[in-house]
Amino acid sequence: MLLQAPAKLNLCLYLGPRRADGLHEICSLFEPIGLVDLLDVSEADRDEVLCPGVDGENLAARALAALRERGWKVAPLRVEISKRIPVAAGLGGGSADAAALLRLAADAEIDLEEVARGIGADVTSQLDPALALVGGAGDRVERLPEPAPHALVLLPGGGGLPTAEVFAEADRLGLGRSDAELAALGSRLREAAGGGASPLAYAELLDNDLQPAAISLRPDVADALAALRDAGAAASLISGSGPTAFGLFDDLADAREAAGRIGRGDAIVCEGGAAP
């Protein structure tokens, strides 16, 4: 079978205090977008997860191993991942791949949310890709109605910006908000997005507290944000810990026109708000 793993976009990300476990509290709006990895799954002699062209630990392999540890007894699987989501780009590609594999066990008597939390902070939100208000370290997920249609231009900038480095830089810069601020922002976001509005209708609420840290580590991110603003984006910011910058547009036609004006070879135009 062929599984789709949609990228996750942070429409906003507000940073809270650092916790005793070293992670940070956040308040964010996550949405799935029309940029997907493809996972080709077939029966095999032994479990094997392949991701050509990507080195290092694979969260999808961890997900499959975690299912086996909990007694999932389907036949051994060979999983080959075709990466379309840029790696280390703030778009949750690894988490999306892991969640797609976990969804294979949806009918098993396994607590998939518990498994997801053990793999990575963003995996829980990807089990059922949908617009969501996300708190905790990314594992407290409140589903919201599907938003009105809108489109995106993504400028990944080659990826390669590790999340841990961005959070460490944010700590060095003294970025972040109090728990009370996060709670107030969460209430405003819930009210703004809870009726299914397009994020363009509440663009003034869209910000990313990690942006100064990402720009500090990758100054070219500022150029990407400026290019999106100059091309007419209703809002432009980074997704997650970056370096991907994105701009919001009314529809795909406007987004394609803007991408043409920007003229960058890495530009990706896609729909936002609903899983493919």
Under the CATH scheme, the architecture is 2-Layer Sandwich
Provide the gyration radius in Å.
18 Å
> pLDDT average, as an integer?
96
| CATH topology title | Ribosomal Protein S5, domain 2
Q: SS-based structural class?
A: alpha+beta
Domain module count = 1
Largest sheet: 6 strands, mixed
The gist of it:
By secondary structure, this protein is of the alpha+beta class.
Q: Which structural traits does this protein have?
A:
about 280 residues, globular, 10 strands, alpha+beta, Ribosomal Protein S5, domain 2, 9 helices, four-stranded antiparallel sheet
Explain what you see.
The chain is of the alpha+beta class and 276 residues long. It has one domain: 2-Layer Sandwich (Ribosomal Protein S5, domain 2), CATH 3.30.230.10. 32% of the residues lie in helices and 26% in strands. It is built from nine helices and ten strands. Strands 1, 2, 3, 4, 5 and 6 form a six-stranded mixed beta sheet that branches. Strand 5 and strand 6 form a beta hairpin. Helix 2 runs antiparallel to helix 3.
Annotate the secondary structure layout.
Layout: E1 2-18, E2 24-43, E3 48-50, H1 59-69, E4 77-82, H2 93-102, H3 112-119, H4 123-126, E5 132-135, E6 140-143, E7 150-155, H5 163-173, H6 179-193, H7 211-217, H8 220-230, E8 236-238, E9 245-249, H9 252-262, E10 268-272
Parallel strand pairs: 3-4
Antiparallel strand pairs: 1-2, 2-4, 2-5, 5-6, 7-9, 7-10, 8-9
